[in-house]
Amino acid sequence: MAGGVNKVILIGNLGADPEVRFTPGGQAVANFRIATSESWQDKNGQKQERTEWHRIVVWGKLAELCGEYLKKGRQCYIEGRLQTREWTDKENKKNYTTEVVANTVQFLGSRDGAGAEGGGGFSRGPRTGGGGGGGASRGGGDDYGAPPPGMDDHNQGGHGGGDDDIPF
Q: What whole-number distance in Å separates Cα of residue 34 and Cα of residue 10?
């Protein structure tokens, strides 16, 4: 297999409301964290639990929708890819962070976060490979640059494609 696979699927709960910003070119970008938990029994039969926090980045109209509909505590399904960013802080120290760049967000539970099933989902349409381009920095490690190719606004929609994408 040439090129490898970079795919992430998560279901978790938001730790805080999404933060939506706009690049100098007017492109929306939303940032939020979701928590996933796993539990197991140790060798003594005691229940153990671990929570993992994941940084999520969403671009374009999908970012605006996340800002409007996702709230702290709300459960969501995320599909995307891992991406590591690098930046230099004020002390000239290099920093790195790994994030999930989401191309699909499904809102789960009720709008008030009470846990009832329902909600809507949004995704970006078909994508081409490649990484992000350059762009202006908004400071503090938020230099996202341009969204990756194939993630422009005209490809966004309900399920990401036409009837040919429906598996039945």
A: 9
> Is 18 inside any structural domain?
yes
CA separation for the pair 117, 16 (Å, rounded): 20
Residue 10 C-alpha from the chain's centroid? 9
Q: Which domain holds residue 26?
A: 8-121
Going by DSSP bridges, is the β-strand pair 8-14/75-88 parallel, antiparallel, or unpaired?
antiparallel
Q: What is the CATH number of the domain that holds 54?
A: 2.40.50.140
Cβ(50)–Cβ(36) under 8 Å? no
pTM reported for the whole predicted model: 0.66
Residue 22 CA to residue 3 CA, distance in Å, equals: 31
pLDDT in tens, 62-93: 999 999 999 999 999 999 999 999 999 999 99
Beta bridge partners of 96: 86
User: Where does residue 125 rank: exposed (0-12), middle (13-18), buried (19+ CB within 10 A)?
Assistant: middle
- Name residue 32's amino acid: F
Structural domain total, the chain: 1
User: Is residue 129 included in any domain, yes or no?
Assistant: no
